[in-house]
Design goal:
Layout lengths: L1 H29 L38 H6 L10 H12 L1 H11 L3 H10 L9 H6 L19 H6 L14 H18 L4 H10 L1 H14 L12 H18 L1 H4 L12 E4 L7 H8 L3 H7 L16 E4 H13 L6 E6 L6 H7 L4 H8 L11 E6 L11 H10 L5 E6 L6 H8 L3 H7 L13 E6 L7 E7 L6 H7 L4 H8 L12 E7 L7
Antiparallel strand pairs: 1-2, 3-4, 5-6, 7-8
Length: 525
């Protein structure tokens, strides 16, 4: 009886459940759809639907992690590239002469990473890291007719204005670290002056803030646009900005233009060390395991055989050579110079001694704790001297000048010795050459000061076409070397040289002199 009750109860419950399910189904079909809540319970693996794999997003390296520093720059260029004739012209030039950028890349290899890091640290446009390409083609010894020097082409006054020292020993305009800081200081100043307009600032870096400011003011007065592209500026400046923008464009789109600029490793190449003492460059190179020319090429600011006695004394060295330099310097008791003892002789002067040992009076005074230039016979002087002859410093200022003057050019080569009253203008007029060319042949600017006795190279384009004749002149009563020189349009120095005379030689009537004159210009008879 008990079992029959249980079975009956079970049948009744089953029927109720079936009715409930049917009712729930009808309600569900009439009600709005219900969004099922998410559950944290994992589905049965046997019934789980396999999901399609999502392709991985390629990792894009940041500019700082690129292997090539050119790519690091390209990824951060921000100045707009307008479609105008000037930009197209310079873009086509870079593409037509790819060897130019190959040469630039070779020169820039030690320095470009250093410059890029300094530009990035100031949050400035990366186009500015390319300015040395436009300014100097990354020639650290570049010198223009306008007296601009170094990678950033500072003229003397602007260099001093931004803290670049210039003296016999050292020219901060060629110091890669110091001149980069000064150039970025100047560009920041110009950016502020021109209300945040980088194109105006870059143009002003080339031609001066006053000129750009006047061009903007003129356009405002005429009701004309004042953006860079509408300013009336000198041809050089009007080309300067498009050249920089075109350069950035070809670097950014090398693949598109079919250009391949040699890569530069995106990592530091150099370390700045400072032994805090004047150092002979030959000795420093020996300590570092470099040749003198290698050391000079990394430290072009030093004009002669040593760092500056009054500072700076720092050196840029390849990273791999720094430890050796420091070890050898310590091993040699921090010796930076070789010193000789000199006994003063009758007739000696500090200036003559300084010239003989290729140093300066200031250095001699400092080395010997002298308060004046007075010296006495028998006095012993300590003289810092070079380990090598100056001529062996192939990248020093005197050697660079000698190489420039020795370069072959068109025409007939002459040597002119500067005398009292000479200037580039008077010398150029005498030889019928352009005074700016004359300065260029001698690694100078037309505004540079000439020294009496200085040797200048003159390339006379007429050369042998001139009617140069050798004559014998018999001295007359009342003649002097200066009057004869003036009469035949030659110099006293030439008369002395041609006739092996002493500078202040006494001449007598009847004496014969040999002269080499241009008869088309001589007024003599």
């Amino acid at each position: 009886m008990k079992y029959r009750f249980i079975i009956l109860s079970t049948l009744l419950l089953s029927g109720c459940q079936s009715i409930g399910d049917a009712q729930n189904t009808d309600i569900a079909s009439e009600a709005p759809p219900v969004v099922a809540k998410k559950t944290t319970r994992s589905p049965d693996k046997a019934t789980e639907t396999p999901k399609k794999a999502t392709p991985a997003t390629p990792t894009v390296l940041s500019p700082q992690k690129q292997s090539d520093v050119w790519q690091r720059i390209s990824m951060q260029l921000s100045l707009p590239v307008p479609d105008n004739a000037s930009v197209r012209r310079y873009r086509n030039w870079y593409l037509k002469y790819p060897n130019h950028l190959a040469t630039v890349a070779e020169r820039a290899t030690p320095f470009l990473h250093l410059i890029v890091e300094k530009v990035e640290a100031r949050n400035m446009p990366l186009e500015l890291a390319l300015l040395p390409v436009v300014e100097s083609s990354f020639d650290q010894f570049a010198y223009s007719h306008g007296r601009a020097a170094g990678l950033w082409q500072f003229v003397p006054a602007t260099g001093r204005r931004f803290g670049l020292e210039q003296n016999w020993w050292y020219d901060g305009r060629r110091d890669v670290v110091q001149s980069t800081d000064a150039a970025l200081d100047y560009l920041e100043y110009l950016h502020g002056m021109f209300d945040g307009n980088w194109l105006h600032a870059i143009a002003a870096y080339n031609s001066g803030e006053g000129r750009v400011a006047r061009a903007i003011r003129r356009n405002k007065q005429r009701g004309q646009p004042t953006d860079f592209w509408h300013l009336d500026l000198p041809k050089e400046t009007s080309s300067y900005v498009p050249k920089l923008i075109a350069l950035g464009d070809v670097l950014r789109h090398q693949d598109q233009y079919g250009l391949e600029v040699p890569a530069i490793p995106n990592q530091p190449a150099l370390t700045l060390v400072d032994p805090k003492m004047q150092m002979d460059l030959a000795l420093a190179a020996n300590y570092a395991g470099l040749s003198v020319s290698e050391l000079q090429s990394l430290n072009p600011a030093y004009n002669h055989w040593a760092t500056s006695p009054s500072g700076p004394t720092h050196l840029l060295l390849p990273n791999d050579n720094v430890e050796r330099f420091n070890t050898e310097l310590a091993k040699n008791d921090n010796q930076g110079l070789r010193v000789e003892r000199y006994a003063v002789k009758s007739g000696d002067s500090l200036s003559e001694i300084a010239a003989e040992y290729n140093t300066t009076v200031k250095v001699l005074k400092r080395a010997n704790q002298l308060h004046s230039s007075r010296i006495r016979v028998g006095q012993r002087l300590m003289i810092p001297v070079s380990l090598k002859d100056e001529s062996q410093y192939t990248l020093s200022a005197p050697q660079r000048l000698a190489a420039l003057q020795a370069a072959e050019r068109d025409g007939h080569k002459r040597t002119h010795t500067v005398r009292q009253g000479d200037s580039f203008w008077t010398i150029a007029r005498r030889y019928d050459v352009d005074y700016r060319q004359l300065a260029k042949w001698n690694g100078m600017s037309p505004r540079d000061t000439l020294s009496i006795g200085q040797k200048l190279v003159v390339w006379d384009k007429e050369g042998d076409a001139r009617r140069i004749r050798t004559i014998t002149y018999r001295i007359r009563q009342g003649d002097s070397l200066s009057s004869i020189a003036q009469r035949y349009n030659v110099s006293v120095a030439e008369l002395v040289k041609w006739n092996q005379l002493r500078q202040n030689a006494y001449i007598q009537p009847g004496q014969k002199l040999t002269l080499h004159i241009d008869i088309s210009r001589s007024s003599g008879s």
